[in-house]
Structure formats: structure tokens, C-alpha cells
Amino acid sequence: MNKQRVAVIGCGLWGRNIVRNFYNLEVLDTVCDLDEENLKKVVSQYENVKTTNDFNSIISNPNITAVAVVTPSHTHFKFVKMALEAGKNVYVEKPISTSAKEAQTLKEIAEAKGLILMVGHLLLYHPAVNRLKMLIDDGELGDIVYAQSDRLNVNYFKNDRSVMWDLAPHDVSMMSYVIGQEPQQVISAIGCSSERNEIMDITHLGIQFENGVIGHITDSWITPMKHVRLLVRGTKKTAILDDTLQENKLQVFENNRAGSTTDIKIDYLEIEPLKLECQHFIACCESGREARSDGENGFNVVKILEEAEKIMLSENKLKSLDERNFALSRLKQ
Description:
Blueprint: E1 6-9, H1 15-24, E2 28-32, H2 36-45, E3 50-52, H3 55-59, E4 66-69, H4 76-85, E5 89-93, H5 100-113, E6 117-120, H6 127-137, E7 144-154, H7 163-179, E8 183-192, E9 202-209, E10 214-220, E11 222-234, E12 237-242, E13 250-254, H8 273-287, H9 295-332
Parallel strand pairs: 1-2, 1-4, 2-3, 4-5, 5-6, 7-10
Antiparallel strand pairs: 7-11, 8-9, 9-10, 11-12, 12-13
Helix pairs in contact: 1-8, 4-5, 5-9, 6-7, 7-9
């Protein structure tokens, strides 16, 4: 079994966590970033790790077997495509791309070349999320009828084109994973900007899954108090996973006894999800098996978000036209 050598592209706020985990797994070879200060930090913290600001030197290096792309989402397609075409296995932060057509292209390249393409849908590797999935698969909640995910926080950088592209990949992938159903269509999508510009920092999505399950997703960049909660309602019981809690993140309630927890012991190992995710990527590279969050998974998420964005932009356009027509009618009075 050949030992993997990984290069990380992008060493910003989140990229540093990726670098740390691959280094601890003893597979980190090189870190690539345009910011020299970021590279200096890598050199000072990680012994024998090489640094560069030239991506081409990464993909042309035969010793590097895998590339982790942790750059702004609008650059993902370009970097991932180049790495795959160079024969590298690829881990890419969510979303895989901001276009379903591009996501499909990346998936097809990876499949044609027999390479691993894994998307950073982190919550698919969260121990509490996987414990919840086990409960659902075992029928503890009954038939699933509804799911709701709220991911609210403050983000001062707003470097994606909307909060939906930043946070909703987590919600859609997690919801689909735990209930074991693929998203079928967007039934509602609303977004707005608190700063009244083109970047939506609050979004609300309604999604229909297979077998008629409805999911609602709310994401925010402007909520002062962090709120990260998943609710899954079954015909027998309802589960709530609150990721802001230090302990007892996952609770299950009887539907007919409001406010009383069941006697189910919901235990799981507290392991950093990112560590598990990075371990999974390396294991897939070494074994050749498909990743849990593979290219198909990435494509399905982007397809839904792209559909939702079209609805949001259409609604906002109609709203702007209505406001303009109202103003014109007032002027004519």
C-alpha cells in the first residue's frame, strides 16, 4: 500500500485546520498559498513541510498523490479539474462547485480516471450525526416525515456569493444523509440582504426529499447568538441535535409525551469530525473505495442549491419590479 502524500491548496482560516489534520496523519507534503504570511506560519509550525505559491508545481510533482482544495468556492472548479487531470486524488471543501454542470464534469473526470473525488461535507463524519443516522436506520423514530436544520451565526467576511453557498451544503448533505433520501426538488426559496446589496446573508429553503419528506433549512450570517440545530421528526419520536452544546448534543423525545426524553441511551465517541473526515479521505485513496461524500453527493447538493438560487433571484427581481411599479404609480398620482 503506497503512502499518500497530500498537498493543501489554501491556508486561510479553515485551511489551517485541514493542514493540521493532514500533518497529524503524517501525510502532509506541501502547502500552497498566495499569502506569504500564511506560508511563514506553516514553516514555523510544521517541521519538514514544504511551501509554495505556485499551484502548477503541485500538480506537476509526481510525489504528490492527493490534493486538498481549500480556496474560495468560485475557484473550486478550476483547481479540482486541473488536479484530477494531472492524476491526483482530490479532497475539495464544500461546495464542490457553484454550478451543477461543473460539478457533473468533475464527477465524470474522476470516474473516468478512477480517482477519488471527495467533498468536504463535514457533518457526514460528525459522531453525533452518525449516531442519529443509526437511530433512524434502526427505526427508533418511526417513518421520517419532516426535518429542519437551522445554522445561524455571525460572519463578518461574507466571501461567498451568499450565505446559502457557504452554509447550506452542510444542511442539505447532512439532512439527506441521516434520513437516507436524496433531495428531489426545491419547493420554496427566499433570501434577503440585511445590507441591501447583492449578497444574501439570510436564506430559507424548503426541499422535498424522496418519499415525500419535507425539509426546511435556515442559514444566517447575521445572528449574534450561534444557533446550530437539526430536528428530525418521525411517526414515533423526534430527535434534536444541538451542536452548540458541549455535551448531550443529541436528544430523542416521544411524540405523545411532550418535554419528556426517552430512556434511550444516546452515546457516541467525541472525536473531532474533521479528523475523521481527513482519515476517511486517506483511507479511500489507499483502498480505492468511494468516499461517503463523493462527487455524486457533491453534485446532488449543488443541483439543489443552484435551483434554490434561481428561485431566490427570480423572486427578488419580481419584488424589485413591484417596488418600481409602485413608485411610478405614486408619481403619477
